[in-house]
């Protein structure tokens, strides 16, 4: 597990392990995620990370993510949950994923998150390589990765997914 907590100008990012350990705080997170994990916001995620059209079982979704990844909540200074940062760490390679609720799209939060995470890695995980995979049709996420300093890795990419990397 990566012990991750940092702030950017507008965002507070923290690993959710403490949240999941507290039953009442976890229940609040499950409620908050109903507005984040919608079919529209999860449309470009792999099928295993989809939540049912009816909101599915968010508790099961949380458990699945916790068992396979390091996940951080992304909140505004007032505590509003706006998204999640999902990480898979393997030695000096960190695969990243992120999602934001629709109400928070187009406000620069994703770019701010990835830039802030890269800055955090520069002091906490120097020498690591960040990798973000994105479906070519997800133009907004492609642009976010580019604005955050990631470059297309054409050799690792395929028709259905393009990989962008940034070495810290």
How many helical elements?
A: 5
Query: Quick one: how many beta strands?
Result: 8
- Biggest beta-sheet profile: 8 strands, mixed
Distance between the termini: 19 Å
Total number of domains: 1
- Category from helices, strands and their pairing: alpha+beta
CATH superfamily: Gcn5-related N-acetyltransferase (GNAT)
Characterize this entry briefly.
The chain is α+β, with helices and mostly antiparallel strands. The longest helix has 16 residues.
Tell me about this structure.
The chain has about 170 residues and is of the alpha+beta class. The chain has one domain: Aminopeptidase. The chain contains 5 helices and 8 strands. The protein has an 8-stranded mixed β-sheet, sandwiched between helices. A hairpin with a 4-residue loop joins strand 3 and strand 4. The radius of gyration is 15 Å and the shape is globular. The chain starts with a strand and ends with a strand.
Entry keywords:
single chain; 168 residues; alpha+beta; Aminopeptidase; 5 helices
Secondary-structure topology with pairs:
Layout: E1 5-7, E2 11-15, H1 17-21, H2 23-33, H3 58-68, E3 70-76, E4 81-90, E5 93-100, H4 109-124, E6 129-134, H5 139-147, E7 151-152, E8 162-167
Parallel strand pairs: 5-6
Antiparallel strand pairs: 1-2, 2-3, 3-4, 4-5, 6-8, 7-8
């Amino acid at each position: 597990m990566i012990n991750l907590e940092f702030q950017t100008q507008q965002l507070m990012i923290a690993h959710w392990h403490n949240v999941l350990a507290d039953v009442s705080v976890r229940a609040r997170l499950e409620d908050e995620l109903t507005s984040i994990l919608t079919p529209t916001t999860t449309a470009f995620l792999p099928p295993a990370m989809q939540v049912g059209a009816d909101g599915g079982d968010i508790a099961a979704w949380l458990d699945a993510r916790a068992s396979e990844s390091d996940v951080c909540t992304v909140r505004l200074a007032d505590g509003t949950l706006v998204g999640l940062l999902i990480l898979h760490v393997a030695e000096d390679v960190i695969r990243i994923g992120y999602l934001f609720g629709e109400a928070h799209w187009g406000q620069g939060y994703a770019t701010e998150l990835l830039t802030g995470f890269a800055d955090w890695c520069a002091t906490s995980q120097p020498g690591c390589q960040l990798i973000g995979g994105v479906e070519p049709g997800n133009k907004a996420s492609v642009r976010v990765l580019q604005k955050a300093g990631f470059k297309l890795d054409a050799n690792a990419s395929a028709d259905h997914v393009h990989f962008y990397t940034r070495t810290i």
